[in-house]
Design goal:
- Helix content is about 75%, strand content about 0%.
- It is mainly α and about 160 residues long.
- It has one domain.
- Helix 1 crosses helix 4 and helix 6 runs parallel beside helix 8.
Length: about 160
């Protein structure tokens, strides 16, 4: 339950603050605000790439919150992996966005980096439990995505090393 509140807080705040009211998705977002994480994963391909990047950048910045929640209840790991898996399935592995004046940043790489850093922190705090829960509840979904798409496989292979 705590994991859901962290995800809802991040996704809801970023989309509410950064989505333009003239964006065609804004109406769908406002109607789905009470279930914003499912809106985000279901409508992933219709949300502007910059907003998706901003959501995962915020998740990356708030990794410690995810780790704290997962350390208290490792069963939430399957929900977190499921959320990321839904996003991985819908994400284009070559999409880049311009942030500030910087060169294009790859959204898919940021997603993988965020989950892998959370995994590393969990593995450092409780290696046995992290590995068991990942193998039992998370590995299958990620491996399925990796088998279906070669471009994603190359990037996502680091996740297997991080969790095991």
């Amino acid at each position: 339950m705590l994991l859901d509140s962290v995800l809802t807080d991040i996704v809801g705040q970023v989309l509410a603050n950064k989505m333009s009211k003239s964006d065609p998705e804004y109406k769908n977002f406002k109607e789905s605000y009470d279930r914003v994480t499912s809106y985000f994963t279901d409508r992933f391909q219709h949300i502007a790439d910059e907003l998706v990047y901003d959501v995962f950048q915020e998740m990356n910045d708030r990794q410690s919150e995810f780790v704290n929640v997962l350390q208290r209840n490792m069963l939430d790991l399957c929900d977190l992996v499921r959320f990321f898996a839904k996003c991985f399935k819908r994400a284009n592995p070559v999409t880049t966005v311009q942030t500030g004046g910087e060169q294009g940043k790859n959204t898919f790489n940021l997603m993988v980096e965020t989950l892998s850093q959370i995994a590393n922190k969990l593995l450092n705090s409780d290696p046995l439990q992290t590995e068991v829960f990942f193998l039992e509840y998370g590995a299958d979904e990620l491996l399925e995505i990796m088998c279906e798409n070669t471009f994603k496989r190359n990037e996502m292979s680091v996740l297997l090393y991080c969790f095991i």
